[in-house]
Amino acid sequence: MALNNWNRALITGASSGIGEGFARRLAKEGTDLVLVARSGEKLEALAAELSVESEVIVADLLDREQLAVVEDRLRDNERPIDLLVNNAGFGVVGDFVATDIDAETDVVMLNVVALQRLAHAAGSTMAERGRGSILNVSSVAGLAPAPGWATYGASKAYVTSFSQGLHLELGPLGVHVTALCPGLTRTEFQERAKYDTSHLSDFMWQEVGPVVEAGLKGLQKNKPIVVPGRHNQVYSSVASVAPSSLTRLAANVLRKREMI
């Protein structure tokens, strides 16, 4: 797929995983980049590998002052950003009452509040110009109850709903907004969440490349939601039509069998 729509993209969580995948894929097509993450060393190393102009912003998006730096960069009309990949996020695994509440709160602050503020900065600026794209990285975890991932699942449910609202609001103004909802993807996410994945079957996993490709293709087609992977699409379809009582029951059974 050729990517012709974007001159410069800002990617959060760009130092690894899906964010790094977006950076490499967009650079391959000649899109200049603004790479955002906490690890300056990783960002500089990535920027040195890419054949496009790659600006590095070292920022912890949980810090309001550092988040504001990224917001200001999105509003800069002299060096305009025409694609925001709102990818930074993390989760905490475990029963909610047994986990660190500060860590759970950080999940909401990063996955919801930071994403919302960056979408506002980008969306308002893009709407004034009459063009632009926002890709919010959500998750299939937001489509149904997620015991053991209660806060994470709720945060991703927000991202998906929020993105659909923006899709309707900003579409007439020339701005495409898409929620990308991957399932299990081979990144550092699970390790950071301290989630043991040894009981999960190989068929449940996707590699970063197809997830990135699906997200960009869906964004170009101005789809409100993209769910990559056939198995994730089946899960999404079932979750969308099943009664809530049934999805809760299924989630609880899977939890007891340590499948989620």
Describe the fold and architecture:
The structure is a single chain. By secondary structure, the protein is of the alpha/beta class. It has a single domain (8-256), classed as Rossmann fold (3-Layer(aba) Sandwich). It is built from nine helices and seven strands, in the order E-H-E-H-E-H-E-H-E-H-E-H-H-E-H-H. It has helices at 17-28, 40-49, 64-74, 101-129, 150-170, 189-192, 208-220, 230-241, 244-256; strands at 8-12, 32-37, 54-58, 83-86, 132-137, 175-180, 225-226. It has a seven-stranded parallel β-sheet, sandwiched between helices. Helix 1 (17-28) links the parallel strand 1 (8-12) and strand 2. It is globular, with a radius of gyration of 18 Å. Mean pLDDT is 85; it is low at 245-260.
Outline the fold blueprint:
Blueprint lengths: L7 E5 L4 H12 L3 E6 L2 H10 L4 E5 L5 H11 L8 E4 L14 H29 L2 E6 L12 H21 L4 E6 L8 H4 L15 H13 L4 E2 L3 H12 L2 H13 L4
Parallel strand pairs: 1-2, 1-4, 2-3, 4-5, 5-6, 6-7
Helix pairs in contact: 1-7, 3-4, 4-5
